[in-house]
Amino acid sequence: xxxxxxxxxxxxxxxxxxxxxxxxxxxxxxxxxxxxxxGPSRALxxxxxxxxxxxxxxxxxxxxxxxxxxxxxxxIHEHPVDHNxxxxxxxxxxxxxxxxxxxxxNQTELNELCRQHESLKVRYGxxxxxxxxxxxxxxxxxxxxxxxxHKDGVDNAQPLLQAMSEQGANTEAxxxxxxxxxxxxxxxxxxxxxxxxxxxxxxxxxREQDAYADLETRVGDFLHALFWVLESRRLxxxxxxxxxxxxxxxxxxxxxxxxxxxxxxxxxxxxxxxxMKNLADLSxxxxxxxxxLSLYHNANETLRSVGDSxxxxxxxxxxxxxxxxxxxxxxxxxxxxxxxxxxRASDATKKVNTPDVVGNTNGxxxxxxxxxxCSSVSSLVTSNSSASGTPTNxxxxxxxxxxxxxxxxxxxxNGELPxxxxxxxxxxxxxxxxxxxxxKYRNAATIETEAALKATRICIEQNRPLDVAMFLQNxxxxxxxxxxxxxxxxxxxxxxxxxQIGYQRKAAFFxxxxxxxxxxxxxQAPDWKQSYSLMLGSFTGYLLSLDPLEVLENxxxxxxxxxxxxxxxxSAARRLGHSALATRHMTFLLQTQWNNMSATEQSEMxxxxxxxxxxxxxxxxxxxxxxxTVIPPANLTDLPYCLELVVKDxxxxxxPLRIKIAKADSGPFLFTPIHFNSVDRRDxxxxxxxxxxxxxxxxxxEVSVRLRNPLPFELAVTDMRLLSNGVVFESLPxxxxxxxxxxxxxxxxxxxxxxxxxxxxGYSTHTLGVKSNCRLKHMHGRRLPPNYLVNVIPALPRxxxxxxxxxxxxxxxxxxxxxVVTSASLTxxxxxxxxxxxxxxxxxxxxxxxxxxxxINSNVEQKQQQKIFRIDDQALQAQLxxxxxxxxxxxxxxxxxxxxxxxxxxxxxxxxxxxxxASSPSHYSNISSSGHASLPLHVSxxxxxxxxxxxxxxxxxxxxxxxxxxxxxxxxxxxxxxxxAGSQHIEAQLRLKYSGGEALTAGYCRQCAVSFxxxxxxxxxxTSWDVLPAEIASQxxxxxxxxxxxxxxxxxxxxxNKNILIEAKESCRVPIPVDRCSLEQVCAAxxxxxxxxxxxxxxxxxQLLSFSDALSKLCSTHIAECVKINxxxxxxxxxxxxxxxxxxxxxxxxxxxxxxxxxWSISFKDTLVQPHSEMICSVGQSTMLxxxxxxxxxxxxxxxxxxxxxxxxxxxxxxxxxLETRVAISGPCRVTIxxxxxxxxxxxxxxxxxxxxxxxxxxxxxxxxPQQNNNSSISHSCPGGTNLGQLxxxxxxxxxxxxxxxxxxxxxxAHIWKFIPPIEVTVVEQ
Length: 1326
Fold this sequence. Notes:
By secondary structure, this protein is an alpha+beta fold.
């Protein structure tokens, strides 16, 4: 864009000292007025005056032709004198007016203010048209003054106040001082103080307490005077004849035209063109826009024809400015954005809001500019805005296709634009051409720079970012001789303009350049504060934010540039002496750029942070700078690096549990088929961070954190605590030293002090001298939820448990072994009883123990467990509640329950094991199904064995072999046997649920347990048994072989008055008389069996129970209840009881155990036979034997066979049944009874003749013959009907069918009922 040729020599004197960076195109139409403060700084006093003056930034003037013009003014605070020299080149650079504002307290200060005002007039006297001075005097000592004493002053002020009433009537309401009093005060101030004689300017005097409402009117009059002077100069210029015009020169051109022929044609045209261009500038300032456009076009053509590049550029720039005034009038709304440097440094300066415009200001703000220097600190009063701050953005830009038109002085009618106006798209091209023409002159570098800035602002308004970038880039190539502050100012303006078009990266680059210029090497007074502020403002361009969380979330930008910028910021903060800022920025660097640094850089930065924090410790609180900027906290979330965070449940014995409450019966519907699965899934997803377990108020809780130290040296982490929200939580500090690159588990503890929901958000650390709040939601790259929600329930009491038994070496291996708090061990012999005293102490200092529930779990079956352990729960509950720090005791009774009946090996099942039914073994799972040695009372001779098998049916045998109990020795227990022959270990847990206080009301409790380890040693054991008939019919003999399995002598008490001693490891045989099982019990067992079969039938079960199974269980239970064998180890106090629970009986034993269903009535020789009575008869005498049977059972008896046998007992185990030659029976000795109904009687009579004398016995028995049921296929399926009525009809049929089925099953077994004892007959000789 810049031309290569340079057409003039460089002269430092002829070049402008510095550019006006605040200029825009519309300033070409403004009259320049210097607004200065004089005297000492009185910002609070003079601020209102400055604001009122700046409001009057335009006036309405009606010229001689009746056209209304709008004249704009620009107030500036500093104006270099050399800029006035360029007033012929561009008239808007001339300073035309001067207004000074000051405050005095005495005459001396007033004289000084007048002197400073006059010195400014002399300084700018070459161009100055008019000047005014506004002085504020001291407050009046007495506001009530006599009007008569100041009549002259009142008369002098009356005309001015009359003008105020006409032009500013709307402002009178704001004047709080009465009008008459106002006149008195003003008159007195002028009388008290007088201006020096050399003060030739007009001055306005006010008191500080005045409202000075007429100030704006007076300023308006002053601006009118300036306009009319300007208008007269324009008219004079317009009346000049072309042949008499003088050559207008730029300051540096005077040397170039020395000695040239000014009467040449080209020079005449040059003179005319320049004057025409100068007249166009004056017309633009005077509000004649149409005339100015025509003059600019004519001047441009004239100057272009003579090759006057410098002035051609000026005419092109004027065309652009005039067009911009018409197209973009909204650019005038940009307020004074910056305050001069020296006023900004004043402590007394404060920002005051600008009140609404009054008077003749038309609501527009002043178009003002500022300079970066000032003559004195007191030379200016303005707003306290930073010179490098971002200006107020202009209104929305106009597109090139839509043109906003404003009416100026009636020159445009009906919104029509002049025909010769530049189009919006042409303005950047004309600016480009003007800049090229300026670039040909080194002395016009300042003009070129300002033109580029004006073009930039127009392009911003036109939304042309590429053109903006082009013009700004061209500024960098302009070689200006300027001071370092001016260079910084240039970079700041470029930054500001780049920001307006959204080029944040370029803006940040130049902003950082400006920051570096402030503190570059060789600078005598480096401004580190300004440098820090500029670098902090460049964060946005580097895609950084002051909030490290936003940086981590966006993860954008250039890491190397960002790291370099933050390091520079840290250096600036250190130079400023702000150690806290330096520490904060270094923490910010480590937090945001940790992943972008190498391991070496990470280590170096960590060491630097440690050194910085040694001067000022870092804390996670915002820092507020002097200018109000807030630096958010930075946290070292990755130092140390959190790998995992786990919220721990409370110890098992302290975990809260819900107290189970029995649910009410809700009817037949156990569940609903409606499940909102989608809702359930959403709830689970939503509550993914909600902890399933509970914490308890006032109880210590734990969170486990797995940390890793990424640094190559040890990292000390101190004061590590949990971060929480919600309920009050008291966190305990933790200190840990982490080794390099080694994961370490750290446990953090705390106590919730209230009940409710606790929000665990993370943890806090203190490492490398920085306190950090490491929240889970800010830990990126890890699968951690944003927080954990834990429900805290009301406080629960805590208890301590102690037992009277010694503790075990190891705890329980059962389930829930983690709730065991203590243990106890005990060794007992089978059948022995003991007790354990358990003491419960309430360790809570404020909560009572109001609820205790005790239950026992063990590794044995529930039925056996209930026999082993017993607790008096009522006695325990009677001791509740337990006060704080109180204790209670209760007894646990322990009985060594065991199977005393020795099972036989599985291979030694009896031959008639099928007689027990298919379901028999399942009812006695702890023992073998059967297998008992036979216990014969008599052994027949070898010659008489044909009745042996029949007699053996009434006794249990092992493979049919005859074996004597006396010769039976203890047999080893097989692999499938019980542990009764050896020691047995039982593990049990006494579990206690307890609660109290508000937690009990809420339905929560705790559970702990006591582990019991019982060792049961074998004591007495029954190795074999048999059932024999007794001497009376109501009893039977239970013959047992009992072994002493202990290592000591045992005393055995098997009846009330019978004892026997058994040596260690020896056995003995004892007969025990037992009452038979009553017929009522048998009937009840049969009824229960029928009811169960009916239930099975209705529930579609195909397997029915046999009556023999129920009867066998009944007899076994009867024997276990009636027979208790007490034993005691001699020489000790160890004693116990052996139970016969689980004894298995054969069907023959069952017949002897139960009362016979037949009632016998036998008479011999017409005499009723009594038990143990002896009948006497003679040899050869016929004796009548009468037998009467009565059925006492609940069902008919079928297939009965009544048998009568006589035999002789030799009392040596031999019995002789071959008595054909000794006894004869007249009548049948074997009678068959097909059926015998309930309560039916049958009678059989026969005659007996004895042939030889002697002692005879008669065996009378009635046996059943087993029959297979032809109707064996019994249907067990449910009929086709499904309604209740059909089932009710079928129920009686099922009952009868089940009864028949039970009867048929019973008939399939062989039964023998004998008359006991046998009839003894003594036969004597006649």
